[in-house]
Write a structure and sequence with these properties.
single chain; alpha/beta; 8-stranded mixed β-sheet; 3-stranded antiparallel β-sheet; 15 strands; about 40% helix; globular
Length: about 450
Amino acid sequence: MLGEYPIQGRRAADISASIERAVGAGALKPGQLLPPMRELAARLGVNPNTVAAAYRTLRERGVIETAGRRGSRVRPAPATTGRDHIRVDVPEGVRDVSHGNPDPALLPPLAPAFAAAAEAGDRDPVLYGDTPVEPELARMARAGLEADGVPDGPLAVVSGALDGVERVLAAHLKPGDTVAVEDPGWGRTFDLVPALGLRTVPVGVDDEGPLAGEVREALARGARALIVTDRAQNPTGAVLSAPRARALRSVLAEYPGTLLIEDDHGHGIVELPLHPLAGATRHWAFVRSVAKAYGPDLRLAVLTGDAVTVDRVRGRQRLGPGWVSRLTQRAVVRLWADHAVDGRAVAAAYGRRREALIGALARRGIAAHGRSGMNVWVPVPDETGAVARLLHAGWAVAPGARFRMSAPPGIRVTVSSLTQDEIGPLADAIAAAVGPAPARAYV
């Protein structure tokens, strides 16, 4: 069961540390089954309760998962390992359309904005005890959120969308609580939630967002939180429509105690309007990142929500990093003020590439999805085979296993840097790897 790796320890802390070291070093692989508690206890000469405590610690740390009588096993993406183990190693000469990055040519130059921010910092340095949010950033962010229909609320600045999601979950939930997540959805969310000691329950997604019926079912079964991507959903490109938003608001009205988290990471690269759910429950948070429009390395997102949620996020932030660099905040203000990114032009550029690939695939009998953003989701009957055949043909795509729990298999193609000349050859390669199939939903 464990090959040659010996689990060691007499105390629960030592046993859990031994297993966690093995997972981090790769001696215990993702998905590998661990010994039953009584069997391991007998082997180590300890009480079964000691092993039970060790396994509980590992579950809460996101290292292992337990499925009743089927036993405990290392999580598919344990918190102690890199999160990209389900990936494609791209050989030299293979075109990489798996990465999920924006087109560098569509990102603004950062040097002028940071130079201006540094000059302002020299004149007015930020010191301990200063306000954590740049006043002008707060003013501009609030104006943008208000224009998009997001309710008024206090603001915090966090280190990217996922950092905001993690802080909000930690502010309200306790280990063992269940979080409803989109499926297919953002793979890092699937990893983050268990790493916090929380459980995930999948809800299906179509082109208009999470399915209201499945959200209702998840909440009825006890899910305490719901995470929704408003636009540029990764990997499907779904956009929350007005009718779907109304349906979800109706569901949330039945469960007002639900913690609602909305991710608007697509702001600045999507032309389609926002239909926020914010305010539909007592506790909510709305996170807007600058990564896709201005650059992932900025590591900055604006977070708003109800007063209790934002106060808890700020309080915990004060005990850790304290604040997100005001130098970076000032640079973002300068980027916004200078209109360094023409959101409509960027959205149109990504839209042309998505629609060109989806259209080319349709002409070859292949159904694909991508209403917004920089990715196209292609349902496939044989995910592993499709990825391997495309790699052999010179194209690296992302395996759908990174983005799904119970949803049918698929592959994700990042179109952000595709040229017009590449659309046809890529569509040919996908058609050859997948084969014509009837249109299928990805729920």
